[in-house]
Amino acid sequence: MSKQLLTQGMDNERTIPWARQQLAVTVHSDHELVSSSPYAMFDSRDPVTNFTNFISDQSIVDKDLVFWVTMGVHHIPHTEDLPVTPTVGGHLSFFLLPYNYFPECPSVSSRDNIRVEYVTPNTPADGLKVERNGNKENGACGALTLEQLVRQRPDDILQTNNEFKLL
């Protein structure tokens, strides 16, 4: 998320009031579908869609919510951009993640959960311990199990050997 650099209320900044907040949470309303309008740049004094009216001190408890996320980047042009401004790395995204919602990691209850850790954390030479939560140790296709691979090539599994190997 990038911070709005324009001074609030100055010149054309009024056409993008949604950019003042990096994140806004509002109660869902059927008439608040978009945060702006294609006509905003022509109508900065009395905009068709005024995002600042969406935000109020209304309670959001037990309501359907809308998250308005403002995302952007600041591009500093340089001579290597010419004749075309690059778009590499221009992908923007965000994650909504629970915080202390579950008493433990939800993947623990997954039947495909496998955890690999050192037997003794301070002495890796003691080997590895593989915990399987619901997985059978011997697969149906006859391929080596994780335990067998760890016993045969622990450095490959733990990636402790940084040399490039062709297998």
Automatic annotation (TrEMBL):
<dbReference type="GO" id="GO:0005886">
    <property type="term" value="C:plasma membrane"/>
</dbReference>
<dbReference type="GO" id="GO:0009308">
    <property type="term" value="P:amine metabolic process"/>
</dbReference>
<dbReference type="InterPro" id="IPR049947">
    <property type="entry name" value="Cu_Am_Ox_Cu-bd"/>
</dbReference>
<comment type="similarity">
    <text>Belongs to the copper/topaquinone oxidase family.</text>
</comment>
<keyword id="KW-0560">Oxidoreductase</keyword>
<dbReference type="GO" id="GO:0005507">
    <property type="term" value="F:copper ion binding"/>
</dbReference>
<keyword id="KW-0801">TPQ</keyword>
<keyword id="KW-0186">Copper</keyword>
<dbReference type="InterPro" id="IPR000269">
    <property type="entry name" value="Cu_amine_oxidase"/>
</dbReference>
<dbReference type="Pfam" id="PF01179">
    <property type="entry name" value="Cu_amine_oxid"/>
</dbReference>
<feature type="domain" description="Copper amine oxidase catalytic">
    <location>
        <begin position="5"/>
        <end position="107"/>
    </location>
</feature>
<dbReference type="InterPro" id="IPR036460">
    <property type="entry name" value="Cu_amine_oxidase_C_sf"/>
</dbReference>
<protein>
    <recommendedName>
        <fullName>Amine oxidase</fullName>
        <ecNumber>1.4.3.-</ecNumber>
    </recommendedName>
</protein>
<keyword id="KW-0479">Metal-binding</keyword>
<dbReference type="GO" id="GO:0048038">
    <property type="term" value="F:quinone binding"/>
</dbReference>
<dbReference type="GO" id="GO:0008131">
    <property type="term" value="F:primary methylamine oxidase activity"/>
</dbReference>
<dbReference type="InterPro" id="IPR015798">
    <property type="entry name" value="Cu_amine_oxidase_C"/>
</dbReference>
